[in-house]
Amino acid sequence: MKKKIFEPIILPKKTIFQLSSLLENYDGDVKISNMKSKIKFELNNSILISKLIDGKFPNYIQVIPKNNQKKLEIDLKIFQSSVDRVASVSLDKKDGVKFSLSKDKLDLSVNNTNSGDGKESLVVKFDHDLEISFNSKYLIDVASQLDGNNIEMFLNDSGSPALIKDPGDFDSIFVVMPMKG
């Protein structure tokens, strides 16, 4: 089988989901060919052809924070359900979930003048004082991708992005930008 190095390409999200579905119970070779603005995946009984997204993939290495020394450790399931509960108070999903962190304590809150306030406190591993806000949808999306029992967030200050890791998967990292205010 002839192997060729591909130039970097960007696939549409829909194509990735379709390919994942095809590969879920598939055991065998996949022939991949790239022609101009399209890509073709050939499996035994299936062929998937997709357009490529025109453009260059951004240099994501530049946005990965390097100075985030403040490590926050939380039980993943508790974190997910707490963020979801606190955020459910807000009718506007763009409202930020505010983190008020102190030694081993995380206070989550959402304040919306129309729909009220949501508050919750969690016991966490953390050794600093920090206030930072995030879009709740982004936090829930990232948390749903993690497989371990815990979530680790590496923080710097209220205006810097958070680096999120799954302690059970060293290959995956996530970056979430904070919200102002």
Structural descriptors:
181 residues; alpha+beta; DNA Polymerase III, Chain A, domain 2; 2 domains; 4-stranded antiparallel beta sheet; 3 helices; 11 strands; 18% helix; elongated
Report on the structure:
With 181 residues, the chain is α+β, with helices and mostly antiparallel strands. The chain folds into two domains: 1-57, DNA Polymerase III, Chain A, domain 2 (Roll), CATH 3.10.150.10; 62-176, DNA Polymerase III, Chain A, domain 2. The protein has helices at 13-23, 76-88, 136-144, and strands at 31-35, 38-42, 47-51, 70-75, 96-102, 105-112, 116-123, 130-135, 150-155, 162-166, 169-176. Strand 9 (150-155) and strand 10 (162-166) form a beta hairpin. Helix 2 packs antiparallel against helix 3 (136-144). The protein is elongated and about 55 Å long. The termini are far apart.
